[in-house]
């Protein structure tokens, strides 16, 4: 909500001239409510599964791109249960369907998680890097440099699988591999482990400020590239075509892309 407030401030009107912003505060509202009322560290959705004693699906494993190819579980009682099929959850389907109405015009996708102080790029399902990995790192480093200039908080840049672990079915992998969004990232916010998931409320505003600084720098660079015609979206293959099961039911044809600069 801090980001939304910043976008409507007069001093930031330049940030909305060249881009449409789509903000989704919470993708998992039922799980979010449950985490505040019942189980503070609840991670998954609240949908029923085949096991009457284990509810919920990990949305970070439910997107239909190389689904269940590593770092995910078919056990409903697992914290990383990927669901009975790709896009089994209404939450992941809603995001997929919305983004597909905007394609191929979306150029940046950032999903914010906690914790670790990381900016993670695809891929999560494999340690093999996409062809435009260096460009993804360059853009992410612009973000992290701006964050550091705000509060001297340092973020690490790298691919999900190499900086953390193999995790298939993530929204950022789907955003780049299927939706063709050239700059797709997962941002793991503060901290690095002292407070972990239970970050003190006193840090909410500082995190908001540094995140906004990162987004400003990231968006300005994206705007510069677009205005100079330096972003070329090569609609081809930068990853093997997923099977229908990986795509998910009723998925549209993919807009696979890589970013290259002259």
Instruction: Output mean pLDDT.
Output: 90
- Number of domains as seen in the coordinates: 1
CATH class (first level) name: Alpha Beta
CATH superfamily: Zn peptidases
CATH topology group:
Aminopeptidase
Largest beta sheet, briefly?
Answer: 4 strands, mixed
Extended strand count = 6
User: Per DSSP, what share of the residues sits in E-state strands of 2 or more residues?
Assistant: 5-15%
What is the CATH-assigned architecture? 3-Layer(aba) Sandwich
The chain-level structural class is alpha/beta
Tell me the strand order in the biggest sheet: 1-4-2-3
Pfam families: Peptidase_M14
Protein name: Peptidase M14 domain-containing protein
GO molecular function, one term: metallocarboxypeptidase activity
Family: Belongs to the peptidase M14 family.
């Amino acid at each position: 909500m801090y980001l939304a407030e910043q976008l409507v401030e007069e001093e930031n009107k330049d940030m909305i001239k060249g881009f449409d912003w789509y903000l989704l505060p919470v993708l998992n509202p039922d799980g979010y409510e449950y985490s505040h009322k019942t189980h503070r560290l609840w991670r998954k959705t609240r949908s029923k599964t085949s096991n009457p004693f284990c509810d919920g699906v990990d949305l970070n494993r439910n997107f239909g791109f190389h689904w269940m190819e590593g770092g995910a579980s078919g056990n409903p009682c697992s914290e990383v249960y990927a669901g009975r099929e790709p896009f089994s959850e209404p939450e992941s389907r809603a995001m997929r369907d919305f983004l597909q109405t905007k394609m191929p015009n979306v150029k940046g996708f950032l999903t914010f998680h906690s914790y670790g102080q990381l900016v993670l790029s695809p891929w999560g399902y494999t340690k093999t890097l996409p062809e435009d990995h260096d460009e993804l790192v360059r853009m992410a480093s612009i973000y992290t440099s701006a964050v550091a200039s705000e509060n001297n908080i340092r973020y690490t840049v790298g691919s999900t699988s190499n900086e953390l672990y193999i995790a298939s079915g993530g929204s950022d992998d789907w955003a780049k591999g299927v939706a063709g969004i050239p700059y797709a990232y997962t941002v793991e916010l503060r901290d690095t482990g002292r407070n972990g998931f239970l970050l003190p409320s006193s840090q909410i505003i500082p995190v908001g400020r540094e995140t906004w600084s990162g987004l400003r720098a990231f968006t300005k660079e994206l705007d510069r590239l677009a205005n100079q015609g330096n972003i070329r979206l090569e609609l081809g293959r930068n990853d093997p075509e997923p099977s229908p099961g990986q795509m998910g039911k009723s998925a549209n044809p993919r807009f696979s892309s890589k970013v290259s600069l002259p």
